[in-house]
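Q: A reviewer asked whether we had any structural model of the full assembly, not just the individual parts. We don't, so I'm hoping you can provide one. Inputs are below.
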Amino acid sequence: RPRIVAVSNQKGGEGKTTTAVNLAASLAAAERKVLLVDLDPQGNASSAVGYPRGHVDKGTYELMLGAAPLKDVVHPTELPTLQVVPASADLTGAEIELVGVHGRESVLRVALDRAEAELDWDFVILDCPPSLGLITLNALVAADTVLIPMQAKYFSLEGLGALTGTIDRVRAALNPRLAIEGIVFCMFDRRTNLAQQVVAEVRQHFADKVFATAIPPNVRLSESPSHGKPVLLYDIESKGARAYLDLAQELLSRIEAR
Amino acid sequence: RPRIVAVSNQKGGEGKTTTAVNLAASLAAAERKVLLVDLDPQGNASSAVGYPRGHVDKGTYELMLGAAPLKDVVHPTELPTLQVVPASADLTGAEIELVGVHGRESVLRVALDRAEAELDWDFVILDCPPSLGLITLNALVAADTVLIPMQAKYFSLEGLGALTGTIDRVRAALNPRLAIEGIVFCMFDRRTNLAQQVVAEVRQHFADKVFATAIPPNVRLSESPSHGKPVLLYDIESKGARAYLDLAQELLSRIEAR
Ligand SMILES: Nc1ncnc2c1ncn2[C@@H]1O[C@H](COP(=O)(O)OP(=O)(O)OP(=O)(O)O)[C@@H](O)[C@H]1O
Ligand SMILES: Nc1ncnc2c1ncn2[C@@H]1O[C@H](COP(=O)(O)OP(=O)(O)OP(=O)(O)O)[C@@H](O)[C@H]1O
Ligand SMILES: [Mg+2]
Ligand SMILES: [Mg+2]
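A: Here is a predicted structure for the entire assembly that you could use as a starting point for your response.
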């Protein structure tokens, strides 16, 4: 059974998609089998691995609503051991549509459980939208752990309490195994006072859950999606590619140490 | 009747709140009467003007659901002509709750129309969450114009089509006067190739709707919210404060030129 990791933070622009895509690619480069699932109607993770908007007609929406089995929505990427479930256009309406569905927080878990025999990956990485609505709740119910990308800024700190509160509620009511995998600082510029203050405050609450690897600001990370490639295929020498390879190694050694 | 401007972009982290708060404050510094309305459950605009989470028990949620009249939810700020409707805690559940409400896309407009006699401001600025759900739809139905903050990055460009498509649909079905006020580049670093490419592409589609004023990256803009102050009260000499004062002037001269 794969380890299912939800990459979530309701604060917008914290680095969720950049982390989901490049961590998934780095784990694939380390010979792990990885499935990336794009749960964001914006479809950024899909286009970052070569499936721009409108490219597929069946994807995450069809999987969640039971309109297509998992094997019909999984697509290959340029990395042999990385596959993706892209966001199809109908995902935009899912938040509202799910409100009237029975068991609305668990439709993703049900869809993945139904395909149990085919879950042939080491990791399933779920890229979440910037909200705590029904799509994100589905990710938290289906996941083993939550990876929280965040910037070292004030609004990012403000949002952390609401996210951990939601994780606690999902663990209590729907998914008892849900744990926090860790917190990753993104676009991290260690030179500002604000950054130092935010890191100190987060370490106080989350201690060793904070990854030692921080992702620096690196223009290659924001360029690579326009070429439909993870950064390690776009510029392996870049600081961004190195940082996500380090993050993958740190994640693997944390898991193996447990 | 005030000019109602929705600050919206479903892409997360583009600078919506920073723009809504600091443009509102800059217009107030230019002797305009301004009401800032925080429609984002994260409540970032509220805390940026001195009303952190939990500070008020009646706010935007109560206004939209008709549980409180406008005059009960308007609060003062440190600037004499800037007032705010903060986000109260219940706004977190509004997206789901509104699904079952009659006229669910127009509850904000109805609440503002009901208070027509009290609308004593020159501008009402609506800070929107990072989504195209029912809260943002309410903002677009109530608004005269939409101000679109964006970064000069690839994912930001990708999201623009979905936003303008939604604006067109709202104009056709619910709010015939809705227009695009303009596009403002935020955290804009003109030195990268990517930034130049994105600006060129956006200018091609939006021409003179793109504001000449671009907001540079400036740490004072990310520090001032932790002091509960707009940047012009935190550091008037900073590049960030100057840029938003320029933006306010540019907006005023565009409106007066029409
Ligand atoms: N380390 C980095 N260096 C430079 N640019 C980055 C870095 N990480 C992310 N970006 C860029 O910053 C923006 C925000 O990142 P991203 O889209 O991954 O965040 P997100 O949390 O997924 O956003 P959303 O809330 O919209 O889903 C994007 O334009 C991305 O390309
Ligand atoms: N010009 C700037 N210079 C430096 N930091 C900035 C600038 N503009 C915004 N920021 C910071 O970048 C982050 C994103 O900005 P902001 O929160 O205003 O965007 P948003 O679009 O409102 O995000 P969300 O989608 O979560 O509502 C915040 O931490 C903010 O403090
Ligand atoms: Mg994203
Ligand atoms: Mg915001």
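A: Points you may want to mention in the reply: DSSP finds twelve helices and seven strands in chain A. The CA atoms of residues 36 and 140 of chain A lie 15 Å apart.
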